[in-house]
């Protein structure tokens, strides 16, 4: 997983949830920005976040109010993207079963025919 959150908050989240997957920090959404996967939250949505006591400035270490779009890529060992799913709407997420099927397909030998 890749997150713009500061490493201290990523580490705390991983510990609290006893997660075993690896999280990477994308400070300032630099990498997400290179792939045009960043959205800037409008003021009305910022107010919703503030109402829920979600302090993006604190968690992300800047005042940009930018978040990466939810995205899932399955990339094979040779660097070829075999499956991709990206949504500008942060409330829409990839179905975990789709990801599992894409990973299983990587384990299936491909025909050269």
Features:
113 residues; alpha+beta; 2 domains; two-stranded parallel sheet; two-stranded antiparallel ribbon
What's this entry about, in short?
By secondary structure, the chain is of the alpha+beta class. It has two domains: 1-68, no CATH class; 70-108, no CATH class.
- What fraction strand? 15-25%
Question: Distance between the terminal alpha carbons, to the nearest Å?
Answer: 35 Å
Order of SSEs, N→C?
EHEHEHHEEEH
Number of helices: 5
With strands numbered from the N-terminus, the spatial order across the biggest sheet is: 1-2
Chain-averaged pLDDT: 90
Structure classification: alpha+beta
Q: Based on CA inertia axes, which overall geometry fits? A: globular
Overall number of domains:
2
Low-confidence stretches: none
Main sheet record = 2 strands, parallel
Helix content: 25-40%
Number of strands: 6
State Rg: 17 Å
What would you say this structure looks like, in words?
The chain is an alpha+beta fold. It has 5 helices and 6 strands. Strands 1-2 form a two-stranded parallel ribbon. It is globular. The N and C termini lie far apart (35 Å).
């Amino acid at each position: 997983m890749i997150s713009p959150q500061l490493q201290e908050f990523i580490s705390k989240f991983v510990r609290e949830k006893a997660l075993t997957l690896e999280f990477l920090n994308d400070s300032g959404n630099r990498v997400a920005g290179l792939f045009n996967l960043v959205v800037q939250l409008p003021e009305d949505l910022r107010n919703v976040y503030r109402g829920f006591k979600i302090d993006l400035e604190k968690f992300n270490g800047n005042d940009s109010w930018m978040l990466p779009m939810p995205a899932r890529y399955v990339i094979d060992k040779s660097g070829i993207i075999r499956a991709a799913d990206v949504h500008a709407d942060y409330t829409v997420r990839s179905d975990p079963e789709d990801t599992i099927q894409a990973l299983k397909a990587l384990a299936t030998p491909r025909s050269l025919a």
